Amino acid sequence: MYYAIFGSLMALTATTVAVAFVNLGALNFPVALAIAILKATLVILFFMHVKYSSQLTKLICGTAFFFLIILFGLTLTDYLSRGWFVAPGGTAGAGTQLTIGPAAPPAGEPGAEAGEGEAAPEP
Amino acid sequence: MADGLTAHAGPHGDGQAHHPDLQHHFQTLGQQQEAATLGMWIFLVTEVMFFGGLLMAYLLYRVWYPEAWVEGSLELNIVLGATNTVVLIGSSLTMALGVRAAQTGAQKATVGWLLLTMALGLTFLVIKFFEYREKWELNHIPGPNFTFEGPLAPQMQIFFSLYFGLTGLHALHMIIGFTLLSVIAWMAHRGRFTPEWYTPVELSGLYWHFVDIVWIFLFPLLYLVDRTH
Amino acid sequence: MTTTVLPRVNYLNVKYGVASWLLTKDHKRIGLMYLVLVAVAFLLGGIFAAGVRIELTTPQGDFVSADTYNRLFTMHGVTMVFFVLIPAVPAILGNFALPLMIGAKDVAFPKINLLSWYILVIGFVFTVAAMLFGGVDTGWTFYTPYSSLASNSNVMLTGIGIFIAGFSSILTGLNFMVTIHRMRAPGMTWFRLPLFVWAIYATALVQILATPVIAITVGMLALERGLGFGFFDPRLGGDPVLFQHLFWFYSHPAVYIMILPPMGAISEVIACFSRKSVFGYSFVAFSSLSIAVFGFLVWAHHLFVSGISPYSAMVFSFLSFAVAIPSAVKVFNWTATMYRGAIWWQAPMMWVFGFLGLFLIGGLTGLFLASLGLDVHLHDTYFVVAHFHYIMVGGAIMGFFAGLHFWWPKMTGRMYSNSMATLSALLVFVGFNLTFFPQFILGYLGMPRRYHVYSEEFQVLNVLSSAGASILAVGYILLASYLFYSLVKGKPAGANPWRATGLEWTTQSPPLPENFEETPIVTEAPYQYSKREVNVG
Amino acid sequence: MLSGIPLFPEQASNFAPEVDNLYFFVTAVTAFVALLVVVLVIIFAVKYRDRTGEKVGAPIHGSVSLELAWTIIPFLVTMVIFAWATVVFFHMVRAPDQALEIYSTGKQWMWRFQHIDGQSEINELHVPVGRPVKVTFTSEDVLHSLYFPAFRVKADAIPGRYSSLWFTATKTGEYHLFCAEYCGTDHSGMIGKVVVMEPNDYQAWLSGGGGLSMAARGEQLFQQLGCVSCHLTDGSGRGPSLAGKYGAQEILANGVAVAIDDTYVRESILTPQMKLVAGYQPLMPTFQGLVNEEGLMSLIEYIKSLPSAGQPAAATQPSAATQPAPPPNPAPAGGGSQ
Questions:
Q1: CATH top-level class for C3-505?
Q2: Of C107, C303, C371, D238, which has the fewest Cβ atoms less than 10 A away?
């Protein structure tokens, strides 16, 4: 059984690497995270035997992630709603999106050096 | 967990009926094992929260500076990262097999699997070392000497601070795990474990898997932000 | 001399010599070792507090320089929070009483227990070293970017000390949690556990889940300060407020590490000296757990004016009001416990009376600070200082002393002077109120905290406060004196001087090294005072 | 002020009565609860006192209805406080549009205030009575907190971003101004006074000192730093036109809408590549180190003062018509807009 789990983990690793090269827009991050959670779940359930362990062990596992989510979630209530207020009548502030924008600057050549020369301040 | 590991040091058994590894304040060996396992799980909970602080910072700055994150992730070597993922998951497999061997009393197999696990762990650390060295040469270590060409340099420094914070903390855990396993392997070699009492093997297994899980998250979070460019 | 009446073999005299203490794995001895360490830290923190109060008797900064003053209040805070309040009740009373109360021979991991003590000592040594090399001036809150970029005091060394001390707290919590799960005597079901044990369990939950976050946060601060990493650095686009989020994610729940175990001790003492079972046992037990869990949801009420989103502030304000409820439930239940009791005015009960009064004020003034509109005015003023001292000293320390006086005969086998203890409780109560009540008024008047020099109109109240502090000091010195005296001349207490229920009172005082002659078997709920004659021992 | 012990600071702003009324209410509620419990404890302790220690108490174990009562009733009472306090708070957070703007920077250990008309002052702030005043401020080094006890308002000054608070002073006079967030050695010296004046006196005071208005100084900077060569008002430059943009929304290159406010303008000057407006090249260099906090504030004030160039400042039309049209829906445009 351990080998089967290992095989699945390998397959999921290959998937997550492959998916990273596919532009899914806003979905890239959730997909990568979902695969990581799936992999972690496999390790926890089978390699760490939680599937066959007591309710208490399961509860403890759950507790860890529950409080981690409290840490993230409640902190993000601050960061994600900061933009709401400054916009006069605005709805979505700058911080409200969690996804990677599809229009991220191209790799390697952000054109900054060129920009530096062209638009340098001329006092 | 240390108590589980060094339990042999204090066999206070007052009667022959007691298992030599039963500590005086426990009623039964089962109670002792359950306590040790529970302790380890609770310890792992604290470990989750320990990484939680850094991950919270990661999450915030990823939301704030998505472009820097994409660029930062492209700076990392995906081949080495993926290799390390495979190596570490492999070491989890060998660790699980090692625990199984200890459970069934296969002493030699136990030692073998543990040594293999350690070897894979060492491989991981060596690869990590080369990655770090490359960053060192590129002056990508955050601090006064940090250099990065481009307009996102300040945010890139945050990215690399988190990269080194997270992977450094993870590597530290690997080193601790490696040390732990070398003790366990030595104990296994000396025939300290039986199918009734192999708690130390089991506990270090839990720890090792936890370290593996951390990497399972770190790999996509750091290396795979967005490779479509 | 009456010492001969003490039990011939007990955990205190079974072995002699320094090594027998420093290498002990006995939870009772470790508890006493924590008591010594905490007493030293309390003295140190008290000296810093005295410096602060002397300076503040005049509006001018004429006693010490501004830098010295800043170091004084910082070191007062650091010492009192991390080396007195956090270890005091869980590690002293918890270590001593918990295994006895559940009928165990020891905690689950005795070696880790000893290790926790050493870790705390090492952390303390680092912190004291930081103080000796010139101190630290960031405030105990270590807010960035002052702590990471501006301060030129010993932030690193103190940070290392706190980082290390954190692991002591984590391991203690881990140990207690496993002990409660796995070491209960036969028949000791969850709902037969004394309420102190419930409180310790809830505390352990907080220690385990919150402490790692402060450890990593201090670690991040150290990397930023020492190596120039960027986590909170605004020059790189980092957010200093993130530090505050992470810091308070620990430090708010940490308040519950300080206050929950004393609450548990209060439940024990109130039941014993009212000769009644605690009113609403399960409500009190679950209120401990819900305080522990809700305590994780309120941290940003320290950040209402720190630049967080107003909507987030609203959420946290709501949750902060919610956490007030279980604390209120406890107070009402304690009061109801006294109704139609047979109240025996002994020293521990005197400390309970003091606790009730002070904790009530501390808790209720929390409502002011949870209120958004009021907090804008009150934040970072002396109102806050007064509020948290009412909770941490009026609540946690008074509750700790209630528990200490309750279990002292069990710990040492000897009785202290009841009248001296009553006097001391009275002095502390009066001195405390005189010290800190004026600070509520100062706060509403707008005097900011951490001020070395202040405006003249605040002087009268500050002088009152300093006067109260000297009464408080007399109360503490008196307490230390009669407790020391009792060690030598105290009358032997017997197994159960209070005629209390609970397993710890069924064994001799001081207990055997292994606690019980044979593992007790529990057959009924706790606090059966009204049901039967209690064994006098 | 020195006579006896005052219990309340002076009420000198529109918020002071609001906050004080709430304070009285909460004080009344908590005092009632505290007295109730203390009186009960004293009565029980005396009435049921047993000097012998031999008696036992009545076998009472609890009452679910009582428990529910003292769980639910306090909860409802706290919810009243919560609602009231939140209303007051949101009143404090939302500055009225027509407020008089004043800029401020805190640094170890002084406050500098900058009036739009050009007056600037240190550790002293002059404001007119009866008119909403909004103070926008930041810090040049560590955290500070701007606190006016007589106005009951306070907010932290955070390096790297703007905070703001507002009040309407209701009574002329001089009041305290404190730094409330610990900031190092001379924290308690980072204090000053706020002088509330009659509007006429304020006008006279304003014209007393001089120099250029903030907007004029911002315009000078705009020329000096070369901003003007790209940010042409007709929108034909390499950077977007800034006319009438303040307060509007822009769509960024990554598809997110942002409001053009103080913070955004500040960020765009210091880290121009972070939040690029859709349809523009990332050409602008950073001005970090070239312009100080006050210069930034002047630039903001200048941009604010620019009239809308006859264009609708609608969010969906961020750039001028002369630009290669950026698609209104940014997602498919993807990297193309770069």
A1: mainly alpha
A2: D238
Q: Which chains touch C (3 or more CB pairs under 8 A)?
A: A, B, D
Q: Which of D16, D188, D193, D5 is nearest to C449 (CA)?
A: D188
Q: How many domains does chain D have?
A: 2
What is the tally of structural domains in chain B? 1
Instruction: Return the percentage of chain D with pLDDT > 90, whole number.
Output: 49
In chain C, where the domains are located = 3-505
* B-interface mutation test, from A48, A57, A66, most B Cβ less than 10 A away: A48
- Tell me phi and psi for residue D159, to 5 degrees: -60, 140
Q: Cβ B46–C209 below 8 Å, yes or no?
A: yes
* Contact call for B67 and D272, based on CB within 8 A: no
Structure tokens at D160: 């790297």
Cβ-in-10-Å burial (0-12, 13-18, 19+) of C89 comes to buried
Residues D192 and D229 in one domain: no
Mean pLDDT of D60-68: 92
Question: Is the CB of residue A66 less than 8 Å away from at least one CB of chain C?
Answer: no
Per-residue pLDDT tens for C103-112? 999 999 999 9
CATH code for position B186: 1.20.120.80
Looking at residue C93, the DSSP 8-state letter turns out to be: I
Verify that D223 and D285 share a domain, yes or no: yes
DSSP run (H or E) holding D154 = strand D153-157
pTM score, two decimals? Answer: 0.89
- Whole-angstrom distance, CA of residue C505 vs CA of residue C381: 46
Tell me the mean pLDDT in the region A3-30: 89
Q: Do the domain assignments include residue D114?
A: yes
Asked if the structure places residue D189 within a domain, the reply is: yes
Whether residue C392 has pLDDT greater than 60:
yes
Q: CB D84 to CB C373 under 8 A?
A: yes
Structure tokens at C192: 């037969």
Average pLDDT over residues D121-150: 94
The residue range of the domain holding D301 is 214-337
Which of D190, D211, D232 terminates a domain? The answer is: D211
D96 φ/ψ angles, rounded to the nearest 5 degrees = -70, 150
Reply yes or no on whether the pLDDT at C131 is more than 80: yes
